[in-house]
Design a protein that fits this description.
The structure is a single chain. This protein is α/β, with parallel strands linked by helices. The protein folds into two domains: 155 residues, Rossmann fold; 66 residues, no CATH class. It contains seven helices and ten strands. Strands 6-7-8-3-9-10 form a six-stranded mixed β-sheet, with helices on both faces. Strand 7, helix 6 and strand 8 form a beta-alpha-beta unit. Helix 3 packs across helix 4 and helix 4 crosses helix 5. The protein starts with a strand and ends in a 10-residue tail after the last strand. 35% of the residues are buried.
């Protein structure tokens, strides 16, 4: 999926509120970036535009040179198939097992059943939850539920992994574990963009940090070469 570029992106809502103001950023393929800023800074709007859940009022977003605004239904479905998304509220189906929750995107994509089991178990192994596959989400801790959400996002092997405050409900130790997981997915080639207000946590990870304030980019800090580490 490759390079992501925001070209002068503005998002203005019907009530006149500008959630994003002239944002121009590029993300290299295989990079990892933390998006930070106060509540209401524009982080969630930024991610929604990238997920094509909303459209810019002005400007363009391109992925590998393709303008997302030009995508019709079929192109949009194909684009979204390369994305994995993790939210603070993980939207798990409480009446379905952990296995079934993680299998859902593969079934939607029409994968053969014998391949579904293999992929789901590989994803659950990555997040350390294989032995929980037959349990219901309500039987898991908050941290385990969040890891199920991550397994579901990565089971499709996305080229781009997007997370909106994935550690918002977790204690510091669990938060570090979750960020280390994102680091692992980045190391196998996924482009990772994580929105987080936890500056103490992300500051120690030596990754790029983009700070938004009132919809504008106010800081863009690049990692120090040669000292990147994950958790």
């Amino acid at each position: 999926m490759g390079q992501i570029e925001f070209h002068g992106v503005v998002k203005r809502f019907d009530n006149g509120f500008e959630a994003l103001r002239n944002v121009s950023l590029s993300f290299e393929e295989g990079s990892m970036t933390f998006l930070t800023g106060h509540s209401g800074a524009g982080k969630t709007t930024f991610l929604k535009l990238l997920l094509c859940l909303d459209r810019p009022s002005r400007g363009r977003i391109t992925v590998n040179g393709v303008d997302l605004g030009s995508l019709k239904a079929r192109g949009l479905a194909f684009y979204r198939r390369g994305l994995g998304a993790v939210f603070q509220d993980h939207h798990l189906l409480t009446a379905r097992s952990v296995f079934e929750n993680v299998a859902l995107p593969l079934r939607v994509a029409g994968m053969r059943e014998r391949d579904v089991g293999r992929r789901v178990r590989a994803a659950l192994t990555r997040v350390g939850l294989l032995e929980r596959e037959s349990m219901l989400p309500t039987q898991l801790s908050t941290g385990e539920q969040q890891r199920v959400g991550i397994a579901r996002a990565v089971v499709i092997r996305p080229r781009v992994l997007i997370a909106d405050e994935p550690t918002g409900n977790l204690d510091p130790d669990l938060s570090r574990d979750i960020m280390a997981l994102f680091g692992q997915f980045n190391q196998v080639g996924a482009t990772v963009i994580v929105a987080s207000h936890d500056l103490q946590l992300i500051g120690g990870l030596n990754q790029r940090i983009v700070e938004l304030s009132h919809g504008a980019v106010v800081r863009d800090i690049r990692p120090t070469p040669g000292s990147a580490h994950h958790g």
